[in-house]
Amino acid sequence: MPVPENLNIVPFISVENMMDLVIAVGTETFLLELAGYIEDDFRRWESFDKVPRVASHSRDGVIELMPTSDGRLYGFKYVNGHPKNTRSGRQTVTAFGVLSDVDSGYPLLLSEMTILTALRTAATSAVAARYLAPRNARTMALIGNGAQSEFQALAFKTLLGVDHLRLYDIDPAATDRCRRNLDRFGFRIEACRSAEQAVEGAEIITTVTADKQNATILTDNMVGAGVHINAVGGDCPGKTELHRDILLRSDIFVEFPPQTRIEGEIQQLAAGHPVTELWRVIAGELPGRRSETQVTLFDSVGFATEDFSALRYVRDKISGSRYFNQLDLLADPDEPRDLFGMLLRRQAALAAA
């Protein structure tokens, strides 16, 4: 059987490529289509290899690897979380990812995932909210107005029709930036002076703060009956946003319990506290929201299948497009066993140049 040509070349999506792709598709369309991939992969949850992410924690942050496979494709993401980075002009979260062919082990795609992670996190939040939020919810409190905030707002607008935002951040400049960035998207936006003010009248509460500590962004008296909480900020051991009493009166939905019990809001609860896996709701095995008074909580920590979905989506979108570079990533000798000969031939070519 003939060997395909250009086995050394892997499509690479740079940050510039990703921005151009999102702009060409349209941010809201991108979020909507990406949500479809995420939802489809949740429906076939049982076909995936699943392990908690491999985390290396330090005093100032965490570096993680997030792998999964469906038996045909393998994907992983490298991602960090360092809240102090903003003080030196760096991003709190950066990431890149790889999608590979299981049959050969060859990479099929290398992509930036700093922007893509923000998009997939927001899309996952909105997918969960379609099953858990009050019907026809239009008002969302957005507490924490950092790098993820605009993506969350747009995903909820696109998938659920949320058009009224109540913003709060301990840094008023962050709220001002968020409001300016979202002005063109048709929201009614209120900047609030406190988290308590932000949640007034909100049917959905999204918390997405970055500090690496056990914080109390929401107290029990701030959460009324019938609210859906989208808790995004708690995503590693020792980092939470909600008072424990809120958890005790909420129906809690999670991605992968072995990971969420370590990293999510439910790290505050006993190991056996009942939770519902989101995939079972999406697959129709279990109910999501059951009543108008039910308090639902999506304890979102991010799971590898969501990154897999995102990589799968962008690989499909770049096919036949200009939104990638050809990266000479893999050694491809003329004869597969002659790797050293490939090095010698390169040496001879350099000497002759």
UniProtKB/TrEMBL annotation:
InterPro entries: NAD(P)-bd_dom_sf, ODC_Mu_crystall, ODC_N. Keywords: NAD. It comes from the Bacteria. Pfam families: OCD_Mu_crystall. NCBIfam families: PRK07589.1. Belongs to the ornithine cyclodeaminase/mu-crystallin family. This is Ornithine cyclodeaminase. It comes from Rhizobium puerariae.
